[in-house]
Amino acid sequence: MVWLGVVDRGVFETWLAKEKAFLRTLSKEPPQETLETEYYQKLLNLLDYEERLRDILQLPLPNFPPPTHAAGYQRAA
């Protein structure tokens, strides 16, 4: 460790403390990076939803016969 400039254990412990402090500042992503990641995920979700919608709209809709009478309603005379 002498070739790294570590003459005693105190130097190493100082480096370690500085490295820990630096890593703590990185524990949270920067707001811009978070925003970009969320935006990208929303684009992926949108593509998935659009594909699902295309699949749904290509299905034939059921052809229900029109009602022959108004269920329970009488016409006003």
Quick take:
The chain has 77 residues and is mainly α.
Structure description:
The protein has helices spanning 9-25, 31-58. With 77 residues, the chain is mainly alpha-helical. It has a domain at 28-58. The longest helix is centred in the middle third of the chain and has 28 residues, at 31-58.
Q: Count of helices?
A: 2
Rg (C-alpha, Å): 33 Å
Shape assignment: rod-shaped
Which ranges are low-confidence, i.e. pLDDT below 50, for 5 or more consecutive residues?
A: none
Q: Distance between termini?
A: 104 Å
Strand proportion: under 5%
Task: Give the secondary structure arrangement, pairings included.
Elements: H1 9-25, H2 31-58
Distinctive features:
77 residues, mainly alpha, 58% helix, rod-shaped
